[in-house]
Amino acid sequence: MNIGKLIERNQCAITGIKDLEPLHQINDFPVFMGCINSQISQDLVTDMCWSISRGSGLIQLSKLIPLETLYPESHGSGGVGRLWEMHHKAFADFINKNALPIAVLEVGGAHGILSREYKQYNNIPWTILEPNPLPVEGCDAKFIKGFFDENFKCEDRFDTIVHSHVFEHIYNPDEFMMNLSGNMKAGDKLLFSIPNMQEMLIRNYTNCINFEHTIFLTEPYIEYLLAKHGYKLLNKKYFMEDHSIFYFAIRDLDVKEIPLPKGLYEKNKNIYYDYVDYHKELIAKLNKEINKANRPVYLFGAHVFSQYLIKAGLQVDKILFILDNDTKKQGRRLYGTSINVASPKILIGVANPIVIIKAGFYNNEIKAEILENINDSTQFLE
Question: Which of 249, 198, 194, 195 is nearest to 227 (CA)?
């Protein structure tokens, strides 16, 4: 089912200059990364069209999905798994050590896990602005349902704004930063966590850029935007080599703008085409293994991990289930596919099952859990 009218992005999302050139296109990609119960005939698909700015080197989607279509419900990202638990604890510690906030506004807090983790340091007023709230047990933050835009006003006073894995979802990062600065006074603090997108794309992670992450938002662009909108960067910390980057900045009206580094166009274009070539070779290898397999075959990850592989040409006729640890996804169907989702525990008692896995920095955690606690005869293809 085709989606219809899209939002056209015809200029660089960082500089505003109309200098985009086509980079790559993936036809008929599913617009939602979650799991649903409806018929596949109701699924929406559209072409994923990537462009690159000749001046800034920014890779970005040129056709965007309307937000109400893209986010009909939460798909649970960031709420499940030991790695995400480690991330939230580390970011809460970063906030405490750098900012010592009095009151926090968190943009896009979803489940409220970060606010819950921060309570161990100080139980302060914490307000979460989120279009699809899913509060976890133990979260006592105040939730406001909605998006952060030029119309947002918060009645509560706060000295700190926080967001975690939100910036990469923003369609207009320049406007987002302008709205942030308009809600903050000199000396107010801004802390955020963002995926380490450059490292992710270099490592060929399929959850790096997509319909939700529409901009290849790497460190040069983030630091350019911070300076442009009056933020002084005080600290930056890497969480793992390939996962996230934590930023701490304060509102400072005396900060001078900084230029983007030269050579980003060539650098980013090469990274992206290496990524495309890698997946062509990977799909050929995986299909060869699937065709000769005489054992049960499964695919891990009821998310964009699997959607990307399938749209890149992965053969699915022998795949019995998509496995996922998220209980909210189990028993449902991965959007854009005809494959249902099951718990990895379905592998118990299966003789030498084959599991295709391409889940980025989650790979090791997933494999260890299956081999140690579910089925030690599992063969992984990755």
Answer: 249
Coil, helix or strand at residue 59:
strand
- Reading the block at residue 289, the tokens are 């293994």
How far is 108 from 131, CA to CA, in rounded Å? Answer: 7
Place of tokens 């109309």: 18
Domain boundaries along the sequence of the chain: 7-65, 82-255, 265-381
**CATH says 265-381 is which class?**
alpha beta
End-to-end CA distance of the chain: 31
The CATH architecture assigned to 82-255 reads 3-Layer(aba) Sandwich (3.40)
15, 95, 143, 223 from 92: Cα distances, Å: 32, 5, 18, 22
- Entry pTM: 0.92
Residue 116, H or E segment = helix 113-118
Q: Could you give the angle at the alpha carbon of 247 between the alpha carbons of 243 and 251, nearest 5°? A: 160
Each residue of 130-187: pLDDT tens digit? 888 888 888 999 998 888 888 887 778 899 999 999 999 999 999 999 999 999 999 9
Residue 85: in which H helix or E strand, if any? helix 82-98
